[in-house]
Specification:
Shape: globular
Largest sheet: 6 strands, parallel
Order of helices and strands: EHHEHHEHEHEHEHH
Structural class: alpha/beta
Number of helices: 9
Strand content: 15-25%
Distance between the termini: 33 Å
């Protein structure tokens, strides 16, 4: 596994399929929603681009309302389990100079896993937020996290990711984000 430290100027966030109908069946649903909201707010504070996908929204509905309420960008609709299998995703996702991806969402063992493999294959440094992902069954989530890590993705808790990106205490960003970690 390649060692690296996340850099806010090289990072892009990818939120996968955080849709209400899907989330209702996810183990640790509340934690996944909580972590996702904190990750989005952190990215906004640190001025990190956030890309969001929805899997077949016509049948599965849209992004969970509390998450959607804090988003300010476009949502990419897809039918493919791997994001890069969907036509036009590469153009939607690309951000010049950003080769580090922080990824979270559902389901860990399907869309998240497949997209992580595609990102690694394209040469991105990938960090999966292990407590910001979920599956219907916990063992599927754990198996996916283990495999993604074994294949080269970093699998870290949300706090590790955000603190790496903040770099130091005492900054305006640190002071703005600190309340998220005291909840």
């Amino acid at each position: 596994m390649k060692p690296y430290v996340l850099d806010p100027y090289k990072t892009i966030f990818l939120a996968i399929d955080l849709q209400e109908k899907l989330l209702n069946a996810i183990h640790n649903r509340g934690k996944v929603i909580d972590r996702s909201k904190k990750l989005i707010l952190s990215a906004q504070t640190l001025k990190i681009p956030i890309k969001v996908t929805e899997q077949y929204p016509k049948g599965l509905g849209h992004t969970e309302k509390d998450i959607l309420s804090i988003l300010d960008g476009a949502v990419f609709e897809k039918n493919s389990f791997g994001c890069f299998d969907q036509e036009n995703f590469e153009g939607f996702f690309a951000e010049k100079g950003r080769n580090q991806v922080v990824l979270f969402g559902i389901e860990s063992h399907i869309c998240v896993h497949t997209t992580v493999m595609q990102l690694l294959d394209r040469g991105y440094d990938v960090t999966v937020v292990r407590d910001g992902c979920g599956s219907r069954e916990e063992e599927n989530h754990l198996a996916a996290i283990a495999n993604m890590s074994n294949c080269g993705a970093h699998a870290l808790p949300m706090e590790s990711v955000i603190y790496q990106l903040m770099k130091r205490s005492g900054t305006a960003e640190f002071k703005a984000l600190l309340p998220l970690f005291k909840e």
